[in-house]
Amino acid sequence: MRRIMRGAAALAIATAAVAAAGTGSAHANDQTAYGCPGGAVCIYAQNADYTKGHPTDIFYSYGAHNLSGEVGYHTVLNNQYGGAGATAQLCWSYNGGNCKITLEMNDHWYYDLTPVNSIVLNRP
To answer: Which residues form the signal peptide (predicted)?
Structure first.
């Protein structure tokens, strides 16, 4: 619950920043996919069926997010919106370094996250 509240706070800050900059819509996309809110990138539990709609990690804000304790195979879903540049990257180093896999908008991967130490949400 705490992670969801932090995510909601991050979304509010990111939305306000986008609105202030005049670079996009100030409202969130309500297109939830498999439990992943519109505008977010979600990670699902190890070996879980993502179609059941219960992500364990939800990221809203652009930039790098360090991961901890993510081992084994997980589905990662990029449910961002706003154009072709709204990608997510899986990175082998912390703070968004050594990124090797890019997920386009509305894309998902079932991947071994053991070597992955961060995920980056890129602004469209």
So the answer is: 1-28
